[in-house]
Specification:
The complex is a heterodimer.
Chain A lengths: L1 H5 L4 H10 L1 E6 H6 L3 H10 L16 E5 L5 E5 L4 H18 L13 H4 L7 E9 L17 E8 L1 H5 L11 E3 L2 H11 L16 E14 L2 E19 L6 E19 L4 E14 L14 E9 L28 E2 L3 E2 L5
Antiparallel strand pairs in A: 2-3, 4-5, 4-11, 6-7, 7-8, 8-9, 9-10, 10-11, 12-13
Helix pairs in contact in A: 2-5
Chain B lengths: L13 H11 L17 H11 L3 E6 L8
The chains are: A alpha+beta, B alpha+beta.
Chain lengths: ~350, ~70
């Protein structure tokens, strides 16, 4: 996530990319492993550039790749500085000007369905932001450089998942207890300590206590104001080898948090117009890839949910959702998370 | 003031909910990178690039750069 701030927030980089390129972003895990049209196209580009000769699966192909629509590589690298990125862009544009003098790139027709699988048509997409909450004495010195970090994910809800937050009767005081199965899926797949990186999903036995009640707190102009209130307690023992040094770690990972918020339900349209939900509490522990081993807590953390917008980027799939199979593995014909567990619950 | 001891036993009033939501959500300056009109699918990006005669710039990370990464 460093590149968001150090590279792609730079005004010159933003201008150069917007003016001269068709910008696109995707998950490298999908691109470098999956044996489908998109994966093969990406790898054919990557082997022409800075990954040349290093295309073994264990070498992450993360980076920035400039190429023509027919797959001709222009420039690539994995810079985390704006100046180096601008140099890469200049190199790409110089190569592009040579190509376009007498050529007209023809793009391959790739399978678009492979990208949009699982999108909850008629449902809702929530954007969930996670950030550390203030501590009385600030961050430990060893991790002070992470003080400004935050991260986010998307939550996909089918129409029936959306309706599960709304009381059957829309009258003042009417309540609905949101189903445990739905809450467990959302918490296990999304209430992860993502502030600094990518932890695994919570295991199926991690949910110790969870509950959420939705109550009609107001009615006006065909809209119901729903008060949301609940709690969540998760606990799971994890053990792992450090990502960067030969050290073995073991933690009891914990999330102990209150849930509170407010949503506006349009009764006639049967959709949310606003969905402001907060999960705030104590987190504890670490995962191999979430940079918490030096700062395992307990410490306060907040998760803020709201309805996502309608920009193309708001169709980014949830991190936990996998719509592809690793080479040599079959996967069920529905979106899954790690371990082939169905993202939307048992079909 | 956000209670640093907040937990599952806490009762959070509406003003505090709004204060914490404001604190957690990104400030505009933290979203500058979203000013770039990112596409989310390589097939769509290739089609646009061929139509507009522009090169593609792909940003790819562990996790999706436009989401959790």
């Amino acid at each position: 996530m460093t590149g968001r701030e150090s590279v792609f927030s730079n005004p010159e980089v933003i201008r150069a990319i917007t003016d001269h390129f068709v910008p696109v972003a995707d998950d490298v895990t999908r691109l470098q492993y999956v044996d489908d049209e998109i994966g093969r196209f990406f790898r054919a580009v990557a082997v022409q550039g800075h990954m040349k000769g290093r295309s073994r699966p264990e070498n992450s192909h993360q980076g920035i790749y400039a190429f023509a629509a027919d797959g001709v590589h222009l420039a690539s690298g994995n810079p985390l500085q704006a100046e180096k990125t601008l140099a890469l862009i200049r190199e790409a544009l110089a190569r592009w000007s040579e190509l376009t003098d007498d050529s007209s790139p023809v793009s391959p027709r790739l399978d678009l369905a492979a990208v949009n699988e699982g999108y909850p048509i008629g449902g809702a997409v929530l954007r969930m932001v996670a950030r550390d909450l203030p501590r009385p004495h600030g961050l430990p010195a060893a991790v002070a450089r992470y003080a400004t970090q935050w991260n986010f994910d998307y939550v996909w809800l089918r129409p029936e998942d959306v309706r599960a937050f709304v009381p059957d009767s829309i009258e003042l005081g009417a309540e609905r207890t949101v189903s445990r199965d739905l809450l467990a899926r959302i918490t296990r797949f999304h209430l992860r300590d993502i502030v600094r990186g990518e932890p695994l999903i919570w295991g199926p036995d991690a949910v110790e206590r969870i509950g959420l009640t939705s109550r009609v707190a107001g009615l006006a102009d065909g809209r119901a104001t729903l008060a949301l209130e609940g709690t969540v307690q998760l606990r799971e023992h994890v053990a792992f080898r450090d990502a960067h040094q030969p050290v073995d770690w073991a933690f009891d990972n914990i999330l102990d948090a209150a849930i509170a918020g407010e949503a506006i339900w349009n009764v006639e349209a049967q959709r949310f117009e606003r969905f402001d939900l907060l999960v705030a509490g104590q987190r504890e522990g670490a995962h191999r890839y979430n940079v918490r081993t030096e700062d395992p807590g307990p410490a306060p953390i907040g998760f803020a949910f709201e309805l996502a917008g309608d920009a193309p980027s708001d169709r980014t799939p949830p991190h936990a959702l996998r719509t592809w199979a690793r080479p040599g593995r079959e996967r069920p014909p529905y979106p899954v998370v790690s371990g082939n567990e169905p993202y939307y619950g048992n079909p | 003031m956000i209670d640093p001891g907040i937990s599952s036993t806490s009762t959070i009033d509406s003003d505090t909910i709004q204060a914490i939501l404001r604190f957690v959500r990104p400030r505009p300056e933290e979203l500058s990178w979203q000013a770039i009109p990112w596409q989310t699918s390589i097939p769509e990006a290739l089609a646009i690039a061929a139509r507009d005669r522009k090169p593609v710039l792909l940003w790819t990370m562990n996790g999706n750069p436009l989401g959790l990464t």
